[in-house]
């Protein structure tokens, strides 16, 4: 059972502003106070996104493409089998690039090059909720023919709900800050005149990846995701 740890950081700014509306010098100045509330929720990720790349090369472009298709198909089959259908696959890129060499028939001082071979790369994006099997997915893909891992990231499928929870916590923190500061300064709060919400979802820290050797499974440590929110409030101060 995963645990969810919540921590709240406090960032407070207090400003007392005296403003005098133009053309109304006979009116009482308006006093206001600005405060900031912050909330940080540390949660375990429940989904991962990995990009695998299959690379092949051959003297003929058609042969390089055919070899790549066979390997890519094997990688896709291996991933689906290992993830037990809890997986979404998509293609993020497909490239054919010629590998050139200098044409020996031309003068050495010239810049004449001819294609020596063709390199084909096919990038497959994998999205899965099987966090506990990420290492096995990597090993299965590499064994089936994947030659490179372009990226590996973790996230939450309920990120919107977590942002709302963090926003509510940040608002409560800002209100409490305002009350504490107003009491300490001997001020009376009249009401909130302005609210600004600043969401921020951070990637998990401490993620580690190491290639497997022999029968060992590649260890992956996803760490925690920090869901952070700020709320800025402006209070009118009663005279």
Automatic annotation (TrEMBL):
<dbReference type="InterPro" id="IPR007497">
    <property type="entry name" value="SIMPL/DUF541"/>
</dbReference>
<dbReference type="InterPro" id="IPR052022">
    <property type="entry name" value="26kDa_periplasmic_antigen"/>
</dbReference>
<protein>
    <submittedName>
        <fullName>26 kDa periplasmic immunogenic protein</fullName>
    </submittedName>
</protein>
<dbReference type="GO" id="GO:0006974">
    <property type="term" value="P:DNA damage response"/>
</dbReference>
<dbReference type="Pfam" id="PF04402">
    <property type="entry name" value="SIMPL"/>
</dbReference>
